[in-house]
Amino acid sequence: MSEILNVINLSKKYGFFTAVKNVNFVVSSRECVALLGENGAGKTTTMKMIYSAASITDGQIKVDGIDVSKNPATTKRALGIVSQEDLLDGSLTVLENLIAHGICYDIPKKQLKEKCKELLEFVGLSNYANKEITSLSGGMRRRLVLARAMLNDPKLIILDEPTTGLDVQSRHVIWKKLLTLKQQGVALLLTSHYMDEVEKLADKVLIIHQGVVLAEGTPDNLPVQNGYKTLEDTFLGLTGFDEEANDIVQALS
Q: What average pLDDT does the segment 190-219 reach?
């Protein structure tokens, strides 16, 4: 496996607040690395620095050996992004949404249309190519966003909570596609609040709390290494979750 993403001593500050502190990890081809943390832990901020949507305060990020800060345009072309927001154009058809996005990569028109059709087939949306976006279910929309992220043949796909709000069947469809991409050599960087999703997809997990990596390992080994039975117990224990205190906060909110 070749190294696709290298995050080195990465930090992000907003004034006096440190959102990410000295984070280090590597993602290789055919590998999925999951960032596991509560809301506000620094996961999305880390991802935004990788695809140049947020500046780096300290440290370094390399995508396919290229420094993100020095050459963001080149590194962006090696990435596919599946963000929490779909950002699909409701005035265009399913196929037109892909074509409009593909134009950004200067793909020749004829080649682009064929590529879009191939990607729609891959995500199971061929029959919806000429349908309006409003006709798609939530799961279909997420599959379309995944297809869009693949237009530039990325070496790394960044997945920020890719199946949030979807039903069980839709989640499994997306998991199957992501596992296929891994087998094809694509690297994946995932954030998710679903433990079963992390266990299904991730080869390595980083537990992040208040911008700091508390532990890392495989989904199977992390609990053993830290004296817990399950990945969920490990996450809750290491991040200091107090169920009784949380119940009080929920009751008062």
A: 96
CA–CA distance, 136 with 175 (Å, rounded to integer):
19
CB-side exposure of 164: number of CA atoms within 13 Å? 13
Q: Are 88 and 138 in contact (CB under 8 A)?
A: no
The domain that contains 199 carries what CATH number? 3.40.50.300
Share of the chain above pLDDT 90, in %: 86
**Residue at 219 is within a domain:** yes
Domain of residue 82 covers 3-86+154-252
Distance CA 88, CA 11 (A): 31
What are the two backbone dihedrals, phi and then psi, of residue 201, each rounded to the nearest 5 degrees?
-105, -35
Would residue 231 count as lying in a domain?
A: yes
Residue 245 tokens, joined: 């205190």
pLDDT of 141 strictly over 80: yes
For residue 19, the number of C-alpha atoms closer than 13 Å in the C-beta half-sphere is 18
Q: What is the DSSP letter of 84?
A: S
